[in-house]
Amino acid sequence: MTLKMAVPNKGRLNERSLELLRKSGLEMDVDGDRKLYAAVENKDFEVMFVRAQDIPRFVHSGTVDVGITGLDLVLEADLDVDKVLDLDFGHCRLSVAVPESSGWNTLEDIPEGAKVATSFPNLAWQFFASKDKMVEIVRVSGATEITPHIGVADAIVDLVSSGSTLRTNRMVEIATIMHSQAVMIANPKSIIAKGKEIEDLASSIESVLIAEKKKYLMADILLKDLPEVERLFPGMAGPTVMNIAGRDDMVAIHVVIDKSEVYDAVNTLKSMGAQGILILPIDRLVP
Ligand code: AMP
């Protein structure tokens, strides 16, 4: 059964989505900006390239079985789709921001009836309602941060990552509505009909995400140091220890370590007299 997948066709989420699919082992020909469809060469998958905003709707309607998009867009769409996997990119937050010149520092400072511009009207409305604050939501489809400067709004609700766009536009963040990242979502009926295919896809992507944070370390160490090395590098199930032909004073160890540990690990092993220290990338890691 063909698994149909929707991926953002451009914008912030496009490149990394494709990279994750490729690293998972799916071979696609997606050259050219205007491509709408790509067949996966080595699996019975079809990839459809659409706007990130449209993906929750296409997954909900069953046009595609699964999609990659921002959690913010999924929650704003408020449709019955299932989140299958957090993808750990596209991190941002949906925040309330006001002009620096307003002098407002907290939500309480925003007056009743203030105009709040946003392309997330549902989430903004729910947030202010949960705070018992009646505001007027002004729906915009982009460039939200300029609306207070042209008299369209008093405050905004917008996505923020570094905060530099807000600073450039002399706005300050005064509340966070939600934290977002890219997610994989699925149609609930597809989860029943194509559960195995969806689970395999999610676990393949997850194995790439795990592998990207790890490195494979190999080194020849003195046998007498083995207990210390085992203590320092417990790995996933302890290091793999192998004999070295012709050397009974040394053994070879292989172990998976966190990327963040590589610097110290190499220096520690070197100071213990280890030889042939190798650090290798890992493509996929299924724990
Ligand atoms: P696009 O409009 O296609 O570039 O994709 C926008 C999506 O990227 C949003 O819905 C978020 O999920 C994600 N994103 C991550 N950081 C930001 C940011 N600073 N501003 C807007 N969107 C962001």
Give the SSE map.
Elements: E1 3-8, H1 14-23, E2 37-39, E3 45-50, H2 55-61, E4 66-70, H3 71-77, E5 82-86, E6 92-99, E7 115-118, H4 121-130, E8 136-139, E9 155-160, H5 164-168, E10 171-180, E11 182-186, H6 188-193, H7 195-212, E12 214-222, H8 226-232, E13 240-244, E14 247-258, H9 262-271, E15 275-281
Parallel strand pairs: 1-3, 1-4, 7-8, 7-9
Antiparallel strand pairs: 2-3, 4-11, 5-11, 6-9, 6-10, 12-14, 12-15, 13-14
The chain binds adenosine monophosphate (AMP).
Which characteristics define this entry?
binds adenosine monophosphate; five-stranded mixed sheet; six-stranded mixed sheet; 15 strands; 3 domains; D-Maltodextrin-Binding Protein, domain 2; 287 residues; alpha/beta
Compact overview of the structure:
With 287 residues, this protein is of the alpha/beta class. It has nine helices and 15 strands.
